[in-house]
């Protein structure tokens, strides 16, 4: 190859990288003046219709964990719970990662169950992420979450935000966890206050959900700029540090007698239930992330149980039975895998809460794991795990 040809190729490569760099920063940049809860204290001075002191007495808290595509199980449980007529109006709903994507519908109640069924039985990976291609060389993730953002903007209407804001004004709370990768800490976002805020509330609301589901290194993060200082922090998957997004501040001043419902979007165990060849670099990385999430979920459930017991609250755990296989890759969304998981969630929910399974006969329905079965009847004096 001639010298001039090599020089031309080098110049072209440099120009291509510069072009990519120019479009890289902040595919999603959020100016944060919205209420943030950190370590149980409001970190923002932004006002909201219901100030922390006007909270309603907390009786039921729903905690939605991380789990990726395995969230199909939790979506099925929620639908069966609704059909049983025994699903409470939760005073607090808190979610992280896939649980953050479930949280708004769970907060608004049974009327939004159809949205969960749609998302967790028809969504494909291409509906959530797209490859960054060469941009990966200068970006901060293999995948671009733009499709997920479009999907959420389609699902979450201004009317839904009005409903969230209305419930917030009554004292109910909806939290979503992200991980501030810059500071290395968990941030809880008061989504009801964001829904009740002025400005581009819908865009801000959705951006927080995208951040909570953005697996570091695999999915582009959300850049959040502090309106007061101008500092920019990187926010990614809330499941990195809080796969079970519960903290005692959510109980208010009196937690005794409250019930913490943890809906685990996956198995609560140390060891994987399915094998994976992990035959490529990307497959190995994804497998490593999924197993890290599994271990963190296992440990965090124990931690949440301890916090509930310390507050005098009851602890209830519903998790994917060990007899039911999780998805082979929780970061790959395949309706052929998620539909059976959703139906398993319906069956488990029916068995636990008493609703008739809509698509599985009693003899075909999977038995809850011993962990899940014990957790349903656990109290502060009787550990759930």
Plain-language structure description:
- This protein is globular.
- 39% of the residues lie in helices and 16% in strands.
- Strand 4 (60-64), helix 2 and strand 5 (92-96) form a beta-alpha-beta unit.
- Helix 2 packs antiparallel against helix 4 (113-122), helix 2 (71-84) runs parallel beside helix 10 (335-353) and helix 5 (146-155) packs across helix 8.
- The protein has 11 helices and 14 strands.
- Strands 1, 2, 3, 4, 5, 8, 9, 11, 12, 13 and 14 form an 11-stranded mixed β-sheet that branches.
- The protein is of the alpha/beta class and 385 residues long.
- The relative contact order is 0.17.
Question: Topology, please?
Answer:
Elements: H1 3-23, E1 29-32, E2 36-38, E3 41-42, E4 60-64, H2 71-84, E5 92-96, H3 98-108, H4 113-122, E6 130-131, E7 141-144, H5 146-155, H6 158-169, E8 173-180, E9 185-190, H7 191-195, H8 201-212, E10 217-219, E11 222-226, E12 232-237, E13 259-263, H9 281-310, E14 314-318, H10 335-353, H11 370-376
Parallel strand pairs: 1-11, 4-5, 4-13, 5-8, 7-10, 13-14
Antiparallel strand pairs: 2-3, 2-9, 6-7, 8-9, 8-12, 11-12
Supply the key terms.
385 residues; alpha/beta; 11-stranded mixed sheet; 3-stranded mixed sheet; 11 helices; globular; disordered C terminus
- Described by its quaternary structure, the protein is single chain
Order of helices and strands: HEEEEHEHHEEHHEEHHEEEEHEHH
Rounded mean pLDDT is 78
User: Which strand-content bin applies to the residues?
Assistant: 15-25%
Cα separation of the termini:
67 Å
Nearest-angstrom radius of gyration?
21 Å
Number of helices: 11
Residue stretches low in confidence (pLDDT < 50, at least 5 long) are: 12-27, 38-53, 359-385
Largest sheet: 11 strands, mixed
Query: By helix and strand content, what is the structural category?
Result: alpha/beta
How helical, in percent, are the residues?
A: 25-40%
The best one-word shape is globular
Total beta strands: 14
């Amino acid at each position: 190859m001639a010298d001039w040809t090599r020089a031309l190729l080098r110049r072209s490569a440099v120009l291509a990288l510069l072009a990519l760099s120019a479009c890289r920063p902040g595919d999603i940049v959020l100016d944060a003046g919205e209420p943030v809860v950190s370590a149980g204290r409001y970190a923002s001075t932004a006002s909201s219709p219901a100030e922390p002191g006007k909270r309603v007495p907390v009786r039921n808290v729903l905690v939605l964990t991380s789990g990726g595509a395995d969230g199909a199980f939790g979506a099925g449980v929620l639908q069966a719970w609704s059909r049983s007529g025994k699903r409470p109006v939760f005073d607090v709903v808190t979610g992280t990662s896939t649980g953050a994507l479930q949280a708004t519908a769970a907060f608004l109640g049974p009327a939004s169950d159809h949205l969960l069924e749609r998302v967790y039985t028809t969504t494909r990976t291409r509906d959530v992420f797209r490859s960054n291609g060469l941009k990966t060389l200068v970006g901060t993730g293999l995948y671009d979450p733009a499709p997920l953002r479009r999907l959420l903007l389609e699902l979450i209407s201004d009317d839904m935000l009005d409903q969230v804001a209305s419930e917030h004004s009554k004292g109910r709370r909806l939290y979503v966890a992200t991980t501030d990768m810059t500071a290395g800490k968990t941030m809880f976002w008061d989504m009801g206050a964001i829904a009740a805020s002025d400005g581009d509330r819908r865009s801000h609301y959705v951006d927080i959900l995208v951040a909570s589901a953005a697996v570091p290194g695999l999915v582009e993060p959300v850049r959040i700029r502090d309106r007061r200082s101008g500092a920019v922090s990187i926010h990614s998957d809330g499941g990195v540090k809080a796969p079970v997004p519960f903290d005692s501040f959510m109980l208010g001043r009196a937690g005794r007698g409250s019930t913490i419902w943890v809906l685990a979007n996956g198995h609560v165990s140390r060891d994987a239930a399915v094998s994976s060849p992990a035959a490529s670099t990307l497959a190995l990385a994804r497998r490593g992330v999924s197993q890290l999430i599994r271990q963190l979920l296992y440990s965090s459930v124990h931690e949440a149980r301890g916090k509930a017991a310390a507050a005098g609250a009851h602890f209830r755990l519903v998790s994917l039975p060990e007899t039911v296989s999780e998805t082979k890759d929780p970061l790959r969304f395949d309706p052929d895998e998620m539909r059976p998981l959703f139906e398993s969630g319906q069956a488990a929910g029916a068995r636990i809460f008493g609703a008739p399974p809509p698509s599985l006969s009693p003899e075909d329905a999977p038995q809850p794991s011993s962990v899940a079965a014990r957790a349903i009847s656990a109290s502060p004096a009787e550990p759930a795990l």
